[in-house]
Design goal:
Length: 270
């Protein structure tokens, strides 16, 4: 199924909603997460492409770290959200550009030029054409440049079941309501259980979650439940795919709990 078809999660709507809770703490955390994954790589003066920028939070983090940023997203509301963040923190800034666009449109990607860093976090598995999107994401990476991608881990039958849930969620108001009524209490109770096992104060979970890339727990739940199209992949397949295209793996952070994103940092060596 391609993204032009009907069943598609309105990511941008969720991101616009996220802007209501966005605080300086989220921004600091987004910067910290970028720094942690890029290691000692200095973004100052580097061209940074944010593919599927969503809220725009990581574009903002990269811009604050001194990068020359281009952000784009397929969803008009995600684009509006990224533009809103830009106008809040970098109004009239010529060095940060925000465009509508799809990673699946090769001519659009080629028109953007070369980048030192291409960043596609949690995006390519939502296009409906994962391997085409993975291919297009590396096109703008210059020789010696970095490609940072995060892709949902393939858990076999469990991922297939999640795909059914997500598709049903996106089928209309009934699917959305039913899946929310079933899964939000499960998410809440499993979170509570984890907190109790680790003897933490359950109330902190909602505040602590922003330590994960500056995100918000409730918005991430909605993104997870509805995020369709959904095409997870095993890490080995991603690594081989990019090796064959002349990239070396610099850093891999597997998802800690089976579901969620594996994070990869590659460098173009050929
Ligand atoms: C889960 S969000 C991730 C947003 C952001 N990268 C982050 O790390 O928070 C996925 C984003 O990918 C965007 N997206 C989906 N298909 C796309 C495509 N073909 N081209 C560009 N962006 C796309 C969605 O609109 C959404 O904003």
């Amino acid at each position: 199924m391609t993204e032009t078809e009907q069943e598609r999660f309105p990511f941008g709507e969720n991101w616009l909603n996220f802007l209501n809770v966005l605080s300086d703490e989220h921004i600091v955390e987004a910067e910290r997460s970028l720094r942690a994954f890029l290691g000692d790589y200095d973004l100052k003066g580097k061209r940074f492409l944010d593919i599927g920028s969503g809220s725009g939070l990581h574009s903002l983090a990269a811009r604050k770290m001194g990068a020359d940023v281009v952000s784009f997203d397929y969803d008009p509301q995600s684009v509006a959200c990224t533009k809103e963040l830009k106008s809040r923190y970098f109004p009239n800034d010529e060095i940060w550009k925000v465009n509508p666009g799809s990673i699946l449109e090769r001519s659009f990607i080629e028109s953007l030029g070369e980048f030192d860093v291409a960043y596609a976090w949690g995006v390519l598995h939502h296009t409906g054409v994962l391997w085409q999107a993975l291919y297009n994401a590396q096109i703008p990476v210059r020789q010696g440049g970095l490609l940072f991608v995060a892709i949902y881990n393939d858990q076999g039958i469990i991922s297939s079941l999640w795909k059914i849930v997500k598709r049903f969620y996106c089928s209309g108001w009934f699917g959305r309501m039913l899946m929310s009524m079933i899964f939000y209490p499960i998410f809440f109770l499993s979170g509570l259980l984890i907190d109790l096992i680790h003897l933490q104060n359950p109330a902190t979970r909602y505040r602590e979650h922003k330590k994960y890339r500056g995100m918000s727990l409730l918005h991430d739940w909605r993104d997870w439940l509805g995020g369709y199209p959904f095409e997870p992949a095993e890490p080995g397949r991603i690594i081989n795919f990019y090796k064959n295209l002349g990239f070396e793996l610099v850093h891999l952070q597997p998802t800690g709990h089976g579901f969620g994103n594996n994070q990869f940092l590659f460098r173009r060596v050929k």
